[in-house]
Structures are given as C-alpha cells and as structure tokens.
Amino acid sequence: MLRMRDMIEDDRVRAGITDVHRESGEVELADAYAEADRRTDLIAALGDRLEEVATALERIAVDPASPSSVALVMDFATALRLCCPPEARRGAPLEWQKGTPAGWWRAIDSKGTSWDVGPGSWATV
C-alpha cells in the first residue's frame, strides 16, 4: 500500500508515468516528465509544468479508450496536486475542492463521477 505522498517518491510508480504520457500521444510532456523524474524532488523539478502533467493524467484517466490503469493514473495525478502548491490544485477536467470530513478533497468529472481523496488514501502498485 502507498500513501499519496509515497506515490510521488516511489520509483516503480514514477517510472510508468512517462510511458502513460507517451501512449496517449503526449510526447513532449513525456520528455519533460522524464527529465524531471531524474531528480529526487519531482514536484520541484516539474515546476511550472506540474499542473500540465496532472491535467494530462486526469484526462487520460477519464478517457474510456485509455489503455492505462485508470486508478493508478488518477491517483498519481491527485498525488501531484495534493503535494504541490495550492495554485496547481485547480485543473481541467477536475476542479478539486476541500470536502468533508476535514482533510478530504473532492472533484466531480464531466460525467458526474465523484472522486474523493482523503488522508491515508492509497493505491496498490
């Protein structure tokens, strides 16, 4: 089990994200992510591109034609947003808002699916 912050630091999870971008046709973004992934602090290395990376991953996760693991891709995008500066937490197609109970975040996608993330959320790798 991995916590959201752990996903950002886990080499096994991070390594697959470059491939997800490439498979979806986001070659330039894949290259930018791969360059940032070589650094220990991925969040700082992504800098201004963090929001773009998270938004692309969210788009991939909600695309019914996506061959990627929806849960892992969405969890990684969420982890990026939750571990980043507040200004990067708003993206398309998901608008993350603080929810209840305290410490939880919620977003509703264009299809009406509710995505909820709370402290101690996890994903399997």
Write the SSE topology.
Blueprint: E1 2-3, H1 4-9, H2 11-23, H3 27-37, H4 42-46, H5 50-62, H6 70-82, E2 97-98, E3 105-108, E4 114-117, E5 122-123
Antiparallel strand pairs: 1-5, 2-3, 3-4
Helix pairs in contact: 2-3, 5-6
Structure description:
- By secondary structure, the chain is mainly alpha-helical.
- The chain has one domain (2-123).
- The protein has helices spanning 4-9, 11-23, 27-37, 42-46, 50-62, 70-82; strands spanning 2-3, 97-98, 105-108, 114-117, 122-123.
- A hairpin with a 5-residue loop joins β3 and β4.
- α2 (11-23) runs antiparallel to α3 (27-37) and α5 runs antiparallel to α6.
- The protein is globular and about 35 Å long.
Largest sheet: 3 strands, antiparallel
Which percent range fits the helix content? 40-55%
What is the C-alpha radius of gyration, as a whole number of Å? 13 Å
Coarse structural class: mainly alpha
Portion in beta strands: 5-15%
Order of helices and strands: EHHHHHHEEEE
What is the tally of helical segments?
A: 6
Using DSSP, what is the number of strands? 5
Strand order of the largest sheet: 2-3-4
Structurally, the number of domains stands at 1
Short description:
With 125 residues, the protein is mostly helical. The protein contains six helices and five strands, in the order βααααααββββ.
How would you describe this structure in keywords?
disordered C terminus; 6 helices; mainly alpha; about 10% strand; 5 strands; two-stranded antiparallel ribbon; globular; about 120 residues; 3-stranded antiparallel beta sheet; about 50% helix
